[in-house]
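Incident log, entry 3
Record: Short-subunit dehydrogenase (259 residues)
Problem: checksum mismatch between cached and fresh output.
Input:
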Amino acid sequence: MPTALITGATAGIGAEFARQLAHDGYDLVLVARDAARLESFAEGLRTEHGRVVEVLPADLAEEAGCSTVADRLAEGVDLLVNNAGIGLNTSFVKVDYADERRMLRLNVEAVLRLTHAALPHMVAQGSGGVINVSSVAGFGVLSPGSTYSSSKAWVTNFSQSIALSVRKRGVHVMSLCPGFTHTEFHDRAGISKKGQPSWSWLSAEQVVRDGLRDFRRGKLVSIPSVKYKVSVFLLRHLPSTLMYRLAGDTRGKSRDAGT
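Fresh output:
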């Protein structure tokens, strides 16, 4: 049976990937920090779907945790879902550097390292894939002073670049870029959901369903839902001065004049 390793697997998009992939016949390796919660979720999947579910407690923002998961990937899996990630609700000039470093180690370095660990086995067998969960935030300056959008811009660009280097070897890499999604992400980051209209929110089920569909179609970038496809089109084509104003920087015009 094919095996999928999923990071950040106990909640939100990661948990939904686990459910849908188990339903599709995958055995699973689930990675998260909370060992008790991880085992409880895994047992539910074993009971409901009859799949083999391995648990791998690890903190991917730490060297030891990342090494543990990289070693497991080197043994071989058919699909890697790099879903684990965090955001911060503090401006760059006020945030603690340790928090910034932790976010970038999880959002960027872990994605780099785990993808690098997984690909040699996939290339050798001529099949397999990687889904890196990014965000529409990576397509524009949506949060002035935030390195979250920068980290997701890296994930999207990295995924496309690696995809082009391995697709002739039978391996597919895709960046999944959802918009606002009902998960624990905002609560953990201390970000209020009240400012966003109800129509702007997606369900984790829809994000994963659309993402897996696009992955099977061979897309390099998946943007779930038409409304966010339109949003990304605008972010890519709006004049930078207008984007700065929409992001809340009224000085965008003068700042852009010298570029």
